[in-house]
Every structure is written in structure tokens, then in C-alpha cells.
Design goal:
Helix content is 66%, strand content 0%. It is built from 8 helices and no strands. The radius of gyration is 19 Å and the shape is globular. The model has no long low-confidence stretch (mean pLDDT 87).
């Protein structure tokens, strides 16, 4: 317990509010990091008219509802993704808190991990890239804090990262030799190594299984809907499926 004697409902409320605030910041990261822009300065601006957003326009979820999804200056529509990212982050923060309990470890390991995965998901959807700042930075964090998770330990974190990297790297090399085409991207390889540092070796297997099944189902559905022969090509990034698989392993344990 971080704050002994604090009722659980207040713990949950604190976690939700924190998740909403971090989610609001992640919207900035998602927009600016792939563009090599500072995530600190300048302050938040309307993407349409570049007008600075005042403090009351930066309140997570509430501001979007209050402004009816439009910029207060130019009235241009604001993407619904902004409150979605905020709500998703808050729900995931609450999920890891319910899973692991309310302790200081959440703030140095679990919350940063979840925040990085949310940013990875939406950046990969938009730009088909996974920034090293998130994947390699998350890998370092996972390895350094693996010992804080008793069921994993530093050995489990290291082996998970090694298995995650080696399995996808080997698969990518094999695919390129057989087909003569590039298969998995380097970002996916580094992302699975990062996930392995948090979920361990057996968690990597769960991650790969879940991501493969869900990715294939979505890819087939996409191909049928668009009448494209390529199931998982450039149209559908694989990173979000790895994130989903990693979260399943992280929150619900190994299923293999």
C-alpha cells in the first residue's frame, strides 16, 4: 500500500484521474514523436488553426464534451481519438492496479509500461513505425525493474527479452531468405523484446499466439472487406496486435 488506510474507492479514483492525465499527455506524444517534434514545447495547439489551447480546453474527456468535439477558436472538428486515448489509458491503469495492487511499483514499472504500449499502438496505426524511444526505452525499463515482480525476477525478464528478440529476428531472417522480401519490421522485433522483459519467456509465447490469431482474423476480415489478396501487408500494422497479446499475458497470465 502506498497510502495505508486509504479506501479502495479513493485508490481507484486516483488511478483513474492519473490515467486520464497521462492519456492526455500521450496524445501529444502520439502526434509529435513520429514528427521529431518536442513533446514539451510549445504547448498544446489546435492542429487546424495552430491556436494555443487554454487550460480549460485541456481537461481530459471533459473538454472534448464541453466543446462538443470542436476547437474553441476555429470550430474545426477534433478527432474523437483524443478522449479515446485518455479513457483507454485510464482503464488500463485501473486494470493493472486491480491486478497487482496499489503500491509504488505501479508508478515505476506498470504505469510507464502501459503508457508506452498505448503510444506505440496509435503511432504504429498512423505511421507504420514504432519509435525506438518507446520500444528500446521500454526494454531498458523492463529489464531494470523485472526484479520488482517476484514471479518474474531479473532472470525471467532477461530471458523473456532475449526470446522475444531472437524469435522474431530469426523469423524475419528466415522469411527474407525464403521469399526474398522483407517480412517483420525491426520495430516489431524490438517491441516483442520489450514485451518479453515484462511478461517473461512463457508470456512471450502467449503474446505471439494471441497476436497471430487476432492479427490473422482481422487481416482476413480486412482482405474480404476490401477484396485485397494481401492479408497482413502494408495496410495493417502488426504492432497493435503484439500490444494486445502482451497485455493479455501481462494481465491474465500465460495461457500456454
Amino acid at each position: 500500500m502506498v497510502f495505508p488506510g486509504v479506501p479502495m474507492i479513493l485508490e481507484n479514483l486516483l488511478v483513474i484521474v492519473l490515467g486520464l492525465i497521462i492519456g492526455s499527455f500521450l496524445n501529444v506524444v502520439i502526434h509529435r514523436l513520429p514528427r521529431d517534434e518536442s513533446i514539451i514545447r510549445p504547448g498544446s495547439r489546435c492542429p487546424s488553426c495552430e491556436a494555443p489551447i487554454r487550460w480549460w480546453g485541456n481537461i481530459p474527456v471533459f473538454s472534448y464534451l464541453f466543446l462538443r468535439g470542436r476547437c474553441s477558436a476555429c470550430k474545426a472538428p477534433i478527432s474523437v481519438r483524443y478522449p479515446v486515448v485518455e479513457l483507454l489509458t485510464a482503464m488500463l491503469f485501473l486494470a493493472v492496479k486491480m491486478k497487482f495492487g496499489f503500491s509504488w511499483v505501479l508508478f515505476v514499472r506498470d504505469f510507464p509500461f502501459v503508457a508506452a504500449l498505448v503510444a506505440v499502438t496509435f503511432i504504429d496505426i498512423d505511421h507504420r513505425i514504432i519509435p525506438d524511444e518507446l520500444s528500446l526505452g521500454g526494454l531498458v525499463l523492463g529489464l531494470l525493474t523485472a526484479g520488482l515482480e517476484p514471479t518474474l525476477g531479473w532472470t525471467g525478464g532477461f530471458l523473456g527479452a532475449l526470446l522475444g528478440f531472437a524469435s522474431f529476428y530469426g523469423l524475419a531472417v528466415l522469411y527474407e531468405k525464403v521469399s526474398g522480401k522483407s517480412g517483420l519490421g525491426g520495430g516489431d522485433i524490438k517491441l516483442l523484446a520489450m514485451l518479453g522483459a515484462f511478461v517473461g519467456p512463457t508470456g512471450v509465447l502467449t503474446t505471439v499466439l494471441v497476436s497471430s490469431v487476432t492479427g490473422s482474423l482481422v487481416g482476413i476480415g480486412w482482405a474480404l472487406a476490401t477484396r485485397q489478396r494481401q492479408v497482413l501487408g502494408a495496410a495493417i500494422p502488426y504492432g497493435p496486435f503484439l500490444v494486445l497479446g502482451g497485455l493479455v499475458a501481462y494481465l491474465f497470465g500465460e495461457i500456454l
